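One such given next:

>
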Amino acid sequence: MISELLLEKLNYCIYVILLLIGLWAMLAKRNLIKKLIGMSIFQTAIILFYVSIAVKEEATIPIYLPEHDPHGSHPEKLTDNNDSAVGTAHTPMALAPEAIKQYSNPLPHVLMLTAIVVGVATLGLALALCLRIYQGYGTIEEDVLLDKLDRVDERASLSPIEKSHLNAKRRTSRQRGKAKSANSTVAALSSSKSTKKKTGKAPKPSAKTSRKPAGPKK
């Protein structure tokens, strides 16, 4: 049982493992880029699965072999009762089941070729959206992004009166901050003056006071 599972159906085990890895990355990861990588792995596993089930041993491409081609030989001309030529008859030829087994099914390959193109286009669009999200919100983490979106929705749902109240609160908080900064500068200046008085150093005379008054002109 184990040897049959590992040797004969090893490809199916690989597809299941790839599917689980991609699904886990899409559901568990919070980074949007990691989610896109998981989606790409998931799509790759599906494409490999469909391509592998269309493979047949000792099969050729789906083009008629020379012995199966109905147009390979020129059929005889058919005539009516008046012996007039009607034309050549190219009738389709039904293949026997043994002959059908010699050809591979092209439908899964064609469908997966379309799936590859769609997957590349989807991945490119998703990466462009991630770039735009990072430029707008400064993050691509799902939790942080959802918090920022909730805040934006709360601000958008407020009435004009509530918005005016919030703006008034912000203004008062800014004014208080400015007043605190002014008080801190005044306190710093007063503390510097007190330290100068304690040290006993007199302030340096200014340039105006150091000049001697000019005497009367003779």
